[in-house]
Amino acid sequence: MLNLHEIFNQFSKSMSKFANSPVNLEKIFTNPISLVTILGCMAIFVLIFKAKKIKFDTKLIARIGMVLALTVILHSLKIYKFPQGGSVTLGSMIPILLIGFMYGPYIGMLTGFLFGIINMIMDPYILNPVQVLFDYPLPYMCLGLTGFFRNRKMLGAFIAIFARFLCHFISGVAFFGSFAPEGMSPWIYSLVVNGSVIGADGIICLVILYFLPVQRLIKTVGNNYKSKLA
User: DSSP secondary-structure letter at 21?
Assistant: First the structure.
């Protein structure tokens, strides 16, 4: 298995070769999907870099494992499954939102990333590598953004859920537009489908989160927890 240094070295070499190709660069700057794909990949590499500096202890690893297990269970408790795909769950985003609040954004995003991989293995729907990126690791990574809003739980949760919606929305426009009814724009189709699924799921999570004592949970796990990030 490659270590992180080897991964970064290979990535740097690939980017150097890519930068020397004016044709590819021209395609990138004229293709919005290429641009957001590069941004998504950069976000993952930044997370990998930051994760190297996180101080993992037994308690933290156990809590990440517990969050992943709870998320898997809640994700399987489907209240309604849409015919177009996707389903409304019983607050499946709550555990990842909470670990972001409690431990900060990088641990929250790392946990979301891991769940995205687990979800891809358990319930795969793969059309394209870029579609996989925007339907599995990236949207659940976004849920860890709550760590940037530890004192404003509702705002933080809304932004994190909306960021997840944007990932699925991009995937819907780029890769599921052909499923749109005749005469309907792929943008409108993706907005309606993903807005319905993520919107309903998000409202349930926001209602549950409103009644949870987030500040008390933060103090319980240690409000001054430090991941030793640069």
Answer: -
Asked if residue 2 has pLDDT above 70, the reply is no
Question: What DSSP state is assigned to residue 223?
Answer: T
Residue type, 147: G
Q: Is the dihedral of CA 119, 225, 4, 160 positive or negative?
A: positive
Quote the CA–CA distance of 160 and 149 in Å, as a whole number: 10
Task: Give residue 16's domain range.
Answer: 4-227
DSSP letter for each residue of 135-152: HTHHHHHHGGGGGGGTT-
Chain-centroid distance, C-alpha 128: 18
Q: What is the DSSP string of 79-117?
A: EEE-TTS-EEESSTTHHHHHHHHHH-HHHHHHHHHHHHH
Question: Does residue 78 sit in helix, strand or coil?
Answer: strand
Q: Is residue 189 within 8 Å of residue 179, measured between CB atoms?
A: yes
Length of the chain: 230
Domain count, the chain: 1
Using the CB atoms, write b or e for 35-67: b if 16+ within 10 Å.
Answer: ebbeebeebeeebeebbeebeeeeebeebbeeb
106 within 8 A of 227, measured Cβ to Cβ: yes
pTM for the structure as a whole: 0.81
Which CATH number is 27's domain given? 1.10.1760.20
Check pLDDT > 60 for residue 203. yes
